[in-house]
């Protein structure tokens, strides 16, 4: 287990979903979940194009059975940019939910942290009992886990973002 320092309060459960609300999920974290190691970012071209963003901030949930859809999945589709993984998304609003391994032996899912509900991410609507006022954003995306595909970083832009420089910067996937 890596360092779990400076990640703030940690949740037992989070919920999230797509922009239109057709797809909803819930993740239950085991007591020994490593918050630092399971927080990651990626700067690969596939993640950038898939999210229309400079990098993906994601959180790995393992085992995969800790993740479950809580709504009907009739609007769920999976895009396969490679043989390694699928990228689940909503066909109604286009929201990408994350990155799901498609290779046998990988028992986890990675959720795009931007799909986590505001209540859990930054405490919007928190009453202080269920969720702390500041939410769990720092636990979910803290920069202490791997930063993937840094060989694709954009000089003068993503190479100088503190979040992307806190931990191991992997040059390959």
UniProtKB/TrEMBL annotation:
Keywords: Lyase, Metal-binding, Zinc. One of its GO terms (molecular function) is carbon-sulfur lyase activity. Residues 14-127 form the CENP-V/GFA domain. It comes from the Eukaryota. PROSITE patterns: CENP_V_GFA. The keyword Metal-binding applies. The keyword Zinc-finger does not apply. SUPFAM superfamilies: Mss4-like (SSF51316). Belongs to the Gfa family. This is CENP-V/GFA domain-containing protein. It comes from Cephalotrichum gorgonifer. The lineage of its organism: Eukaryota, Fungi, Dikarya, Ascomycota, Pezizomycotina.
